[in-house]
Amino acid sequence: MLQRGEYLFIRVCFSQTGHLTPLCSEIAHKCFPEEKLEKTRTQPSALKYMHNNITCMTKLYFLGGENVAKKDSREINEAAFRDAGETPAVVVFPWARASFEQAYKRRKRLFDYFRSLGACNVDFVDYSDTYEEINRKVECSDLIYLPGGLASVLVERLKNKNVDTLLRGYDGVVVGRSAGALALGKKCVVTKNRRNPTSKMIRGIGLVGFSVKAHYKHSKDAALKKLSKQETIYAIPERSALLYDDGCLSFMGDVYLFQNGEKTLAE
Questions:
Q1: Are the beta carbons of 205 and 167 closer than 8 angstroms?
Q2: Per-residue pLDDT for the chain (267 aa), expressed as one digit of tens each?
Q3: Burial 207-216 (b: 16+ CB within 10 A, else e)
Q4: Angle, vertex CA 143, rays to CA 129 and CA 178, nearest 5
Q5: Superfamily of domain 44-265
Q6: Beta-bridge partner residues of 146
Q7: CA 99 to CA 220: how far, in whole Å?
């Protein structure tokens, strides 16, 4: 039986009527005692927010950030690879940086990392590839990986190449890290820093109906509470992840929900 304190734990989801869906009910009853299930069922949650905003059937991993050189989110990536079939064919979209310089070093690091995780093949999509070439690579893959960089650059390029449309119909696993995670959401939440003088939200490709903040730190709470009056936001620290699977959410590590100006631990 899974315990709440374990690193990966199951959450339950609700139908539009507010009741547990049959599949999630079966899973929940197996994994949680009845008294814990009742508490989860009645607890206010953003899962109710999700039901009118499901736009993607793909399993998505929103990774808040990782130092790839240190492989400090290996457990999360291992879980994604298991979901994609243990030895998946991986396709990477390294499009989130303004410049494509030094691409070989970053690609080599990802290639070696993913091979060590069990990937049978690691392919990279060049921005110069035709739509037909991109479509072929996507169709031959089990897992798509969107690395970090600049969310605005990544979103623009994904849309320009119609990759957002391909991802909506994709039946594998998608992992977004940092800017890659932001891009998958309804809006990308960018808080004030050295590059950005003000906090703002940029439209993502909208595979889900909520917005995402990566590299979350508690010092950003005031800005996120203000922005959450407009959009529901999941704030994901580095080395943590939010998993979206057919309308159900689960979490690896701590993830925070900002909604209607309030902050709670996502459950």
A1: yes
A2: 444 333 333 333 433 333 334 444 443 443 333 433 333 222 333 443 343 344 567 899 999 999 999 999 999 999 999 999 999 999 999 999 988 866 888 999 999 999 999 999 999 999 999 999 999 999 999 999 999 999 999 999 999 999 999 999 999 999 999 999 999 999 999 987 767 768 889 999 999 999 999 999 999 999 999 999 999 999 999 999 999 998 899 999 999 999 999 999 998
A3: bbbbbbbbbb
A4: 85
A5: Class I glutamine amidotransferase (GATase) domain (3.40.50.880)
A6: 176
A7: 28
Residue 225 contacts by C-beta under 8 Å, 6 or more apart in sequence?
258, 261, 262, 263
Residue listed under structure tokens 């091979």: 115
Where do the domains of the chain lie? Answer: 1-43, 44-265
CA distance 215 to 243: 16
